[in-house]
Amino acid sequence: AGMAELQLRLSLLRLLLMVSAGASNGLGIHGLQRGAVLSTRTIARAPTACSSEAMAVRAPLRMLGPYTALALTFPKLATAEQRARGDAGVSLDFVVDTAANVNTISAQVARDLDLATVGTQPGGVGAGGALAGGTTYMLGECELGDLPKEERFALMSGLTASALPVASPSGAGLLGAAFLFAFRGGVEFDWGSSGDASGTSSTANAATQAASVPSLTLFGDTRGSERLAKGLCEVPAQQLPESGLVSVDLTVNGVDVPALLDTGSPITVLNAAAARAARLEMPLAEATTLNPFQAAKAALETARLMATGELTMIGGKDGPIRLRKIAQKASIALGDAQMGEGRPYVGELPGLAALGGLGAEAGPAAVLGTDVLRQRRRLVLRDGKVYV
């Protein structure tokens, strides 16, 4: 029966057109290294919310702490130990980050795998701000690592990534917007569900467990993917001209704020101008002092705030960036989709410069993270549009 099912799957495969820099799912490709193409091997049909005619592959998403990651297997790469015994095949976890316009990899991982250098990246853009340039490495052919071994295929060849100063908050690196935009039919994030499966049959329980696992579905062509948006709300969005990143309209307390769409951020961050425009009570700034006793007390208070999630710090190229939660909940919406109430953070993320959101004279700007995006089951990027 397993062989018959495999033969049936093979009979349904369609040839996926090669995608090079310049072809996309409606959003322009920025930062996709030359030579990286989707494999001419087909993408298999996967059960999706769209038409049964859609040619797609669904891969489970891993959670690396609060970060959403995709496992990729590189059958031709090897560690030093593997090379010594004539073996090969490495699996790496990459955070899927719509607010990065380049793929990145940890410099340590690149050294451990003895990756070939193929050039230098002049720099990129992320929510943490402009990224200084770094060496670009060839990763080569990749497969979706969390698919059953017998269902794996060469998803993409010639994949490269750059070892930038801030390669990734977790995992081996980042898969940026260019990777996602390479799929002509679009991509669908399914954040999963947490339904209670107690008291159900083993079959129903397995289905419930499968539905609870976050996944990323990649659509190889546009045919059949037009129904992806069925039942979803379109979010006003645009692609920023220089970085190629996606900006959406985030509504906070009835006030529209331009926000970077950022699946690589577990939190939503407003700048001070956005917080004021939305009539939010600003968190108190931490006082600075030269008194050692007061400094020690302030350090203890900082530790307490971080432990409770009221304060967080993220890495930036010029050092840690402090972000504070707003004091009271605010209503949040994306287009016609009501996202409930939440307490976003307030701070001056360097990446907000892409929206003109830095400095004393800056207008309202935000980074839209997965804490808000997960309030809707699905996020779809297709044909230059965003749906939730």
Describe this structure in words.
This protein folds into two domains: 2-229, no CATH class; 239-373, Cathepsin D, subunit A, domain 1 (Beta Barrel). 16% of the residues lie in helices and 33% in strands. The chain is built from eight helices and 25 strands. The chain has helices at 2-11, 80-84, 107-112, 177-181, 202-212, 272-277, 292-308, 370-373; strands at residues 37-38, 56-60, 62-64, 67-74, 90-96, 104-105, 116-126, 129-144, 156-162, 173-175, 186-190, 215-219, 234-235, 237-239, 246-252, 255-261, 269-270, 311-314, 321-325, 330-334, 337-342, 345-346, 366-368, 378-382, 385-387. Strands 14, 15, 16, 17, 18, 19, 20, 21, 22 and 23 form a ten-stranded mixed sheet that branches. The longest helix has 17 residues, at 292-308. It is globular. The protein starts with a helix and ends with a strand.
